[in-house]
Specification:
Number of strands: 4
Strand order of the largest sheet: 1-2-3-4
Strand content: 5-15%
Distance between the termini: 18 Å
Radius of gyration: 25 Å
Order of helices and strands: HHHHHHHHHHHHHEEEE
Number of helices: 13
Helix content: 40-55%
C-alpha cells in the first residue's frame, strides 16, 4: 500500500480553497474581512492532519519512519517552485522597484525558511512577508517526524493522541504566556513556536482516527454541537490586525472549527487502497472477538498490483471493515476451512505489504491473531493499535 497517497477527498480541496480565499481577502484588505488572516490556520490544521496520517501509516507498516525519504519528498515538493520564484524575484524586483534595498537579503532568508523568525525579530523579509507560513510548515516538517516517532515508542498503545493533545495544550499555554508578557502582535503571530497549535490539533485528530475509531465515532455523533464553532467563524472577521484577542482565543476557535469540519468530512475508507479483480482465499484464525470456539473465518484477498506482484489483505468478516473492492466479506464465494488456501503474504500485524505472486504456503490450520495468545498460551506479536492491523494475512 502506498503510504504517501490517500483516496481522493474533494472536501479537503474545498477546505484548502476556503483558506486560500481568506488569505487573498486579507492581503487585499477587503472590507468586512479584517480577520481573514485566520485563513492560514485552516491550512495549518489540515496540514497537520495529513502529514501525521501519512507518518502513522508508515509506522504501522514498517515500524519506523524513513526520515530521508520523508525529507526528500518534502524538498522536491516545495524547493523547486520556491527557488524558481525567488530567482525571478531577484531578477525582476531591482528593475521594477529600484527603491528596494533588501531584495537579496529577503530572498536569502526566504530560501532558508527563516522568514517566520526573521519577521518577528528582525523585520526581514519585508517585501516577501507572505513567506512566513511556508517557514512555519517547513519547521514542522523538520521537527515532527522524529518527535512523533519518539512519542509512538514511549507512549502506551492507543495513547499517542493523548500525548499530542498535551503538546497542543502546552503550545496554547505558551502563546497565552507570550501575550501576557506584552509581546507585540507580529512577534506572536508569525513565529513557529506560537503557531504550532493548529498543526498539533490536526495531528491529534489523525492519531485519534487511527488509534481510537470508537472515540472518533462518538465525537462525530456530537457533530451538531461542534458546528456552532463553524458558525462562529464569520463573527471573527470583525477582529482586526493587532487585536490581541485573536492570539488569546481567536486562533483557538478557528482551529477547533477546522477540526469539526475535518471530523465531518472524514472518510473511514480513506485508509484502504483501491484494488480490482480480488481473489479470495479462506481459512480460520483465532480472534479476540470470537464468541465460542476461539476461531473465526477470515478471507485473504490478493489483488493484482504490478507485474509479478500482488497485495494481500485478511480480516474478520465484518462488512464495515472490508476494503471497498468487496461488496460483502464472502463475495468471492463461500469460505471453507477444510482445505488450506495459498496466500502470498506473511502474517502482518501492521499494514498490508507487497509480496510476490501467490506462493505455495497455505493457511490450512488456525493461526493466532496478532497480539493474542494461542491455545498453548504463547504470545504473538503486539497487536497494532491501528484499524488496518486487524486484517492480518497468514504466515
Amino acid at each position: 500500500m502506498n503510504a504517501d497517497r490517500f483516496a481522493y477527498n474533494p472536501a479537503l480541496d474545498g477546505l484548502r480553497a476556503v483558506a486560500i480565499l481568506l488569505v487573498i481577502l486579507s492581503h487585499a484588505h477587503a472590507p468586512m474581512f479584517d480577520g481573514a488572516f485566520f485563513g492560514v490556520d485552516l491550512f495549518f490544521v489540515l496540514s497537520g492532519y495529513l502529514i501525521t496520517s501519512l507518518l502513522l501509516r508508515e509506522v504501522a507498516g514498517t515500524g519506523r519512519i524513513d526520515y530521508w525519504r520523508f525529507y526528500q519528498r518534502r524538498l522536491y515538493r516545495l524547493a523547486p517552485a520556491l527557488l524558481l520564484f525567488l530567482g525571478v524575484y531577484c531578477l525582476v524586483a531591482p528593475r521594477v522597484w529600484p527603491e528596494l534595498s533588501d531584495v537579496y537579503s529577503d530572498a536569502l532568508v526566504s530560501a532558508l525558511y527563516l522568514a517566520d523568525y526573521g519577521i518577528a525579530f528582525f523585520d526581514s523579509p519585508n517585501t516577501l512577508l507572505h513567506m512566513w507560513s511556508l517557514a512555519v510548515e517547513e519547521h514542522f516538517y523538520l521537527l515532527w517526524p522524529p518527535l512523533l516517532m519518539g512519542i509512538v515508542r514511549r507512549t502506551p498503545r492507543g495513547q499517542v493522541w493523548r500525548a499530542i493533545l498535551l503538546l497542543f495544550l502546552m503550545g496554547w499555554a505558551w502563546r497565552v504566556l507570550c501575550v501576557s508578557q506584552g509581546q507585540q502582535f507580529y512577534e506572536v503571530f508569525f513565529r513557529f513556536d506560537t503557531r504550532t497549535t493548529g498543526l498539533l490539533l490536526g495531528s491529534m485528530l489523525a492519531a485519534l482516527t487511527v488509534e481510537r475509531p470508537d472515540l472518533f465515532q462518538r465525537m462525530r455523533a456530537q457533530l451538531p454541537r461542534w458546528m456552532w464553532l463553524v458558525l462562529a467563524l464569520p463573527l471573527l472577521m470583525a477582529l482586526e490586525w493587532d487585536d490581541m484577542n485573536a492570539m488569546l482565543w481567536g486562533l483557538t476557535v478557528v482551529e477547533l472549527a477546522t477540526l469539526a469540519i475535518l471530523i465531518a468530512v472524514h472518510r473511514p475508507r480513506d485508509w484502504w487502497p483501491r484494488c480490482s479483480a480480488p481473489r479470495c482465499s479462506c481459512g480460520w484464525a483465532s480472534s479476540p472477538t470470537a464468541s465460542t470456539s476461539g476461531t473465526t473465518p477470515w478471507c485473504a484477498i490478493c489483488a493484482p498490483n504490478s507485474p509479478g506482484r500482488s497485495r494481500c489483505w485478511a480480516g474478520l468478516p465484518s462488512p464495515r471493515r472490508w476494503p471497498p473492492c468487496l461488496s460483502t466479506p464472502w463475495s468471492a464465494g463461500p469460505c471453507s476451512g477444510a482445505t488450506g488456501a495459498p496466500c502470498g503474504a506473511r502474517r502482518a500485524w501492521g499494514m498490508p505489504e507487497h509480496r510476490p505472486a501467490l506462493s505455495s504456503r497455505c493457511c490450512s490450520r488456525p493461526r493466532p491473531w496478532p497480539g493474542s495468545r494461542s491455545a498453548s498460551g504463547s504470545s504473538g506479536r503486539r497487536a497494532s493499535p491501528y484499524p488496518w492491523g486487524r486484517y492480518a494475512a497468514c504466515r
